[in-house]
């Protein structure tokens, strides 16, 4: 709170300040209350449900069982597989698309004929309905007989591989990398274009070669953008559901199920409200631990950006 | 729409030698010293060709999808794949006949109404958060961004139960509420960064002339921010249109959206590649166009305003 002004001090200083504080906060309140009701309230219910034995296919079965659901979930091998898959899919998708994104951004960071068209083309995969992207990769790219991937690979001796069935994780990650590379490219490109021209020129004057310029000047400058891309990408990708639902249904078996998909299965196919709520809570706890670190980093990065703007 | 850069052969020729596009589209500084430009000419052409080649390779799945949408089923499933065929619009007709229109209508309602709500709630909130950064402002900002970290699977169970209890399952307004909550944090962050950019001078000038807060907001700040608000709206539209998790779990027949329509193509038996491509193209088209329009603002929206 800022110190009270003289005008306000003449009245009752405390209530005047409080009134101004509320006036300033008032426009924020509808949004804040809405968000609390729609996101925090349900989560409190999730915590409550997680202590219940509650399966919708067994009516009247509902009772308090304490932490038994958590014990069941943490010893569930499928849950652990799904957790591992989540980490694997998220990490590989984010890292590969970031690497590709940096490459594409560097190519795009020069003036050339048709640059606008190329950029427009490159961002398109990000805009295509993710569900459509999943079907496109499953049925048109990875289709064993008529698919383009096997056609392109056939000179290298690849047969009729059914990618979605035989290598489900690779298939899913490929489709997701295709979808997320444009996002990384756009972020890195923004970073490249915010780079001061004078620094580059100074480097040129000093006789640095391209590689030296890239590692000593460009890469450190891009660090903030790369961190941001990895963080935001992870937030979005870790929640991926549509690609897995459409491409593999988590299969074969549970080979490609990630946590969102497995919890969905327990909820809407197993109707086990108690256990899926417990899984939800565990996922949130895990996310919070990672996010505490990430949020701090993100906040620093955001605030640095805001300062630079104002 | 896609005017990233050079407007004329002269400009592009000189900039091919290493000149950099300013963020405004106007080259800040053109080219390098003459002697070096010629040397990099051949190299520049090669790099341009390489960029085009890689870009086309990268988007080829999407191009192939669009191409396949214009094929007959017989031409779509050939081994090897063919690019020689007689284009037809029949598959698009087939998709419409299979009843996609109600799904598109639901998507349209969920997208447009939730986007309007986001702006209605988000603009005042962002304004409140952009004036005077105090501790509580930071807390509020922190709270908004933290909701994006909450995995949706952790709240879908109670949302499902609650919706069932108030008979709001399979209701498009349930989606409207959820999409508003999904996009509000992003919008607040993004709008805040636009508010911070409004020159303080014009706001102060208006206040000197005796304009009250509502008037300053309405006739001074909002006009300056109009492009930013439009960009925010476009970003929200992209996310809402593409949303699948809530749609597939909380809707059935009445309120299902375009992504849910696509689930019908999941079964492998009797799969029609051309029809699938036509449907995928059709449901993606509105957002692809919106995204192309918003491409300059896309990064800013996706990074919640962290990057210009």
Automatic annotation (TrEMBL), chain A:
Record's keyword annotation contains Acetylation: no
One BP annotation, GO: transmembrane transport
Topological relation to the membrane, as annotated: Multi-pass membrane protein
InterPro entries for the chain: MetI-like (IPR000515), MetI-like_sf (IPR035906)
Parts of the chain that traverse the membrane: 28-49, 87-108, 120-140, 169-192, 228-247, 277-299
Membership in a protein family: Belongs to the binding-protein-dependent transport system permease family.
UniProt keyword annotation of Transmembrane helix present: yes
Listed name of the protein: Sorbitol/mannitol transport system permease protein
Location in the cell: Cell membrane
GO cellular component, one term: plasma membrane
Entry superkingdom: Bacteria
SUPFAM superfamilies membership: MetI-like
Gene3D superfamilies: MetI-like
TrEMBL record, chain B:
Record keywords: Cell membrane, Membrane, Transmembrane, Transmembrane helix, Transport
Stretch list, region Disordered: 1-37
Major site of localization recorded for this protein: membrane
UniProt feature, compositional bias: Low complexity: 1-15
One GO term of the biological process aspect: transmembrane transport
Subcellular location: Cell membrane
Transmembrane domains' residue ranges: 44-67, 108-129, 141-161, 173-195, 216-240, 246-266, 273-294
Membrane topology, record value: Multi-pass membrane protein
Listed GO CC annotations: plasma membrane
Ranges of residues in domain ABC transmembrane type-1: 104-294
Coiled coil segments of this chain: none
Family: Belongs to the binding-protein-dependent transport system permease family.
Descriptive protein name: Sorbitol/mannitol transport system permease protein
Organism per entry: Nocardiopsis mwathae
């Amino acid at each position: 709170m800022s110190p009270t002004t003289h005008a306000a001090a003449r009245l009752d200083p405390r209530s005047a300040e409080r009134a101004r504080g509320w006036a300033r906060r008032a426009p924020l309140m509808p949004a804040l209350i809405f968000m609390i009701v729609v996101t925090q309230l349900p989560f409190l219910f999730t915590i409550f449900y997680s202590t219940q034995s509650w399966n919708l296919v067994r009516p009247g079965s509902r009772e308090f069982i304490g932490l038994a659901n958590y014990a069941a979930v943490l010893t569930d091998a499928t849950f652990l597989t799904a957790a591992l898959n989540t980490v694997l899919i998220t990490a590989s998708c984010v890292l590969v698309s970031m690497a590709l994104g940096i490459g594409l951004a560097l190519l795009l960071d020069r003036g050339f004929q048709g640059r606008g068209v190329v950029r427009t083309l490159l961002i398109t995969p990000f805009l295509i309905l993710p569900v459509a992207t999943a079907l496109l990769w499953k049925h048109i790219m990875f289709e064993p007989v008529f698919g383009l991937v096997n056609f392109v690979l056939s000179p290298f001796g690849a047969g009729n591989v059914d990618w979605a069935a035989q290598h489900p994780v690779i298939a899913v990650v490929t489709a997701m990398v295709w979808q997320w590379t444009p996002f990384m490219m756009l972020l890195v490109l923004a970073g490249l274009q915010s780079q001061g021209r004078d620094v580059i020129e100074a480097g040129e004057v000093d006789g640095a070669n391209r590689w030296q310029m890239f590692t000593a000047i460009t890469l450190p400058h891009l660090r903030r953008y790369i961190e941001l891309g990895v963080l935001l990408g992870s937030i979005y990708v870790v929640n991926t559901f549509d690609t897995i639902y459409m491409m593999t249904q988590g299969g074969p078996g549970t080979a490609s199920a990630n946590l969102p998909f497995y919890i969905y299965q327990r909820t809407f196919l197993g109707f086990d409200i108690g256990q899926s709520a417990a899984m939800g809570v565990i996922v949130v706890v895990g996310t919070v631990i990672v996010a505490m670190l990430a949020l701090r980093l993100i906040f620093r990065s955001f605030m640095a950006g805001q300062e630079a703007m104002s | 729409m896609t005017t990233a850069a050079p407007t004329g052969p002269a400009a592009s020729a000189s900039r091919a030698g290493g000149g950099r596009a300013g963020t405004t589209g106007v080259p800040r500084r053109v080219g390098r010293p003459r002697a070096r430009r010629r040397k990099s000419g051949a190299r520049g052409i090669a790099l341009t060709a390489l960029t085009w080649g890689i870009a086309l390779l990268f988007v080829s799945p999407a191009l192939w999808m669009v191409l396949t949408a214009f094929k007959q089923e017989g031409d779509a499933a050939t081994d090897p794949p063919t690019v020689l065929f007689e284009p037809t619009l029949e598959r698009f007709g087939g998709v419409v006949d299979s009843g996609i229109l109600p799904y598109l209508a639901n998507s349209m309602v969920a997208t447009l109404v939730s986007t309007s709500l986001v702006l209605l709630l988000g603009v005042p909130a962002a304004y409140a958060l952009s004036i005077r950064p105090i501790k509580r402002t930071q807390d509020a900002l922190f709270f908004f961004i933290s909701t994006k970290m909450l995995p949706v699977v952790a709240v879908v169970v109670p949302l499902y139960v609650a919706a069932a209890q108030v008979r709001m399952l399979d209701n498009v307004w349930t989606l409207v509420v959820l999409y508003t909550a999904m996009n509000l944090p992003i919008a607040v962050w993004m709008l805040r960064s636009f508010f911070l950019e409004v020159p303080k001078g014009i706001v102060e000038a208006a206040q000197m002339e005796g304009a009250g807060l509502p008037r300053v907001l309405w006739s001074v700040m909002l006009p300056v921010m109009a492009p930013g608000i439009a960009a925010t709206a476009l970003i929200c539209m992209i996310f809402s249109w593409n949303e699948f998790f809530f749609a597939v779990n909380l809707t059935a027949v009445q309120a299902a959206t375009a992504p849910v329509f696509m689930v019908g193509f999941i079964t492998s038996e009797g799969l029609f590649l051309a029809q699938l491509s036509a449907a995928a193209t059709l449901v993606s088209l509105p957002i692809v166009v919106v995204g192309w329009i918003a491409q300059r603002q896309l990064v800013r929206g996706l990074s919640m305003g962290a990057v210009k």
